[in-house]
Write a structure and sequence with these properties.
Largest sheet: 9 strands, mixed
Distance between the termini: 39 Å
Structural class: alpha+beta
CATH class of the domain at 15-33 and 57-64 and 509-768: Alpha Beta
CATH topology of the domain at 15-33 and 57-64 and 509-768: Rossmann fold
Number of helices: 13
Shape: globular
CATH architecture of the domain at 15-33 and 57-64 and 509-768: 3-Layer(aba) Sandwich
Low-confidence stretches: 4-49, 170-177
Mean pLDDT: 91
Amino acid sequence: MDAKMRGSCACRLRKLLIVGFCGLVECAMLISADPLRIGVSAAQQPGETSNQLTVERIYSGPSLSGRILRDTVWSPDGKLLTYLDDRGGRPEIWAVDATTGRRHVLVDAGHLRDVLLPPESRGQQTGLGRLSPTRYLWSPDSQALVFISARELFWYDLKSQSAKRLVGEMKGQESAGEGADIDDAKISPDSHWVSFLRNHDLWVASVAGGEPRQLTKGGSEDLHDGELDWVYPEELDLETAYWWAPDSSKIAFLQLDEHAVQKYPLVNELSYARSVTEEQFPAAGSPNPVARVGMVDIQGGDVRWMDTGSDPSVLLARVAWLPDSRRVAIERLNRVQNHLELLFAEASDGKCQTVLTEQDKYWINLNDDLHFFADGRRFLWASERSGFRHLYLYDIYGKQIAQLTHGDWEIEDGAMVDESAQTVYFTSTKNSPIERQLYSVALSGAEPTELTHDHGTHEVSMAPDGRHFQDTYSTAIKPPQQRLYNAGGGLVATLEENKVPELEKYHLQPIEFFTVPGADGTPLDAAMIKPPGFDPTHRYPVIVHLYGGPHGQEVRDEWQGSNLLWHELMAEKGFVIFVLDNRGTAARGHNFETPIYHQFGKVELEDQLAGVKWLSNQPYIDRSRVGIWGWSFGGYMTCVAMLRGGGVFKAGFAGAPVTDWRRYDTIYTERYMGTPQENPDGYRDSSPVNFAAGLEGKLLVVHATGDDNVHFSNSVALSEKFVEAQKYAEFLIYADRGHGISDTAARLHIFNRATQFFVEDLGNKSDLAR
């Protein structure tokens, strides 16, 4: 499950249903009949300019989050940071000199016009769709770019400013697979080849010219060679399924055999032909794709398979080459994900040896911090064995040399090693769990050095040579800005100030950060937005917002876009907005996560109820008017709160909720819950469908029929349970959308209704419209 959705994408709703599924016209009537004229001050007269936020303004363009540089890519030599700029209507690629900060056009609109073609649309916001297709790549020698569209690849020589097509829809080549879409293009380390996927197989094209060649054969809808399925990228965060050897002589690839994987139909209900897409989706307790790692030479020949064992249920979660191009590292994880092995496989014959092992009583969180040093004698590894993710240095035989970072804080994925400076760069929660700062630490030891200092969240992209970094910085009430720094933290240039003058007129209320005691006394991070003109003697209704699940974090000093702005709108209407990260969420260490093991919803609800108890002790809170909302896992938690919260919450808005964990995927669900066969009681007690009779208050459920992540069947099953229990909830159904339901029309429809829903159901309308 994508924790980054957080109600948007962070990372991100068509017909009104009241269990028996009433029609769209009734929903439209409910919205248009709102006596508060949602988002407009009661005192405002026609023709006046409003200084209040509206749903229409929040979810329509231009974005109130502003705009930052996009498609930013470092040149492999670290000298240039490039980005795609189409603000003038004529796209160009610009380059920023890393040393001086000066900018120039790298590829002008005239040259770009014929090579920057539309990429393949992946449609959904989960699985592979969570990653935007790459528009262009730098060649490893920094002399050329490759432009990628759905069916063509162009090689663009920067010196001559000329392009040639390497792969395209050329007449007479359909038999060679030229009619199929291109995916996951890469350039070989020696810049002589471009590899890509077509028809579920791996291909290469020579930069020198000639026909593309197929390296693997037999790929199909059920057998992926070098191609990801749905569940591996979604739940293991893999972004690719093949890897070039450093010497460009061969490619290691992941094969995923999905013949035994369940197929789930996604029906386009708007089509007269009732078109159906079958998604291969392994539901909890059912077979996973069978994975194995193969090796294929660029000059052709048979595939060599690595001997990763005979257990078909294992997950082959990471693959990386060692510098010698003779061995490949494979991270093998057991099905329930509490035993991880780092294997070294010989490329020549597939023989494997286990180099190190990680075990955990609960589960292991994967990371991407495996780095092999060029000397071939050491590697960097990250582990949570201390309770927090930290960096360790090992020799090539698996013996620990040193622990590089220590403490009750954790590093995030993506550490970057500068071997020439013998330094590792990483972002972490060292200052605070609600912040992210960049640090460096010497391989020889010593305390980390903080390189970014402004309070808030810094998302950093290091240059390949380690000499500069791009910093995308934001705070809870400041949209992201982009700056260029040298490795010591010295400012080189401001790349994008991203000022949004319109925000100033809305006078956003500050966000207060603090901690409250959880159900067991653990301090929990919390945040609050108070209404404008806050009066501590007045008693305000509350909207609680949550995600609540693994890897999610809502209480963070970071710009959260439309979610924040909608909360500000609701604060304008007289609500206190309260957000709390319960145990089980991210950024507080592994031990903070594990209380949810084998039963979702219990500890999370206990902590949220403890937060409401703390709120109820504040003199300005009306404990009789508390609502709750969330999306994805937050939608699940909203259902749990409304069905098992003892009537504490009077109204709940649940977006795309899981209602029965047997309906969710294997890798995510079994990591925390085990399998349904092993833990039937946990699955029963964690699933809202089994507690429909406990509904108290008003519940609004929003779901899309085309959701490939949390299937629409979850809401259908909950609806049926409400029928059986003679309980009533309101369902908004959105046809043929994905998990985030992110199009403008749908977002307006959803949040106009959600606004009205809370205003109507949490009490005194005239009071809320003050």
